[in-house]
Amino acid sequence: MFDPNFDYTLTIEFDRLSVDDLKYILQVLYSSSSECYIDIEYLADEIIKRLVDCKYSIREKHNKSLKHLIMSTFETLKRIAPFMYAPSDRIQTIYDNYHKYMHGIDSPQVSPVVSPKLVNP
């Protein structure tokens, strides 16, 4: 029997799932109601955590599946952004961390390049 006092909210424990399971769930959530878009953001939090935990080893062959999941999550967040109250900050977080760990691209605080001094002949 339906109990109106019971909380029927579905909570997905993303941290317990494999990369392949997360890929599947991402597809299901995206194909479902727009009410599931917030769950895609929660999934993105787990992806960001895994990327940061992985750091530079994201470049290694055994992390190929995780790289694909990161990119799929990034693209999905961009696709749902127009339908969200505000675009997710997770888009930029994934972009920054992926480029930092995958390509070694990080925004320097100060340019490491020193301009040469002109010498009068």
Q: How many E-type strands?
A: 0
What share of residues is helical? 40-55%
Number of helical elements? 4
Would you tell me the structural class of the helices and strands?
Answer: mainly alpha
Tell me the major beta sheet: none
Categorize the overall geometry.
elongated
Point out poorly predicted stretches: 110-115
SSE diagram, text form:
Elements: H1 19-31, H2 37-54, H3 64-80, H4 90-103
Helix pairs in contact: 1-2, 1-3, 2-3, 2-4, 3-4
Structural account:
The protein has helices at residues 19-31, 37-54, 64-80, 90-103. The radius of gyration is 20 Å and the shape is elongated. The termini are far apart. The model is unreliable at 110-115 (pLDDT under 50). The chain is mainly α. The chain has one domain (14-103). 51% of the residues lie in helices and 0% in strands.
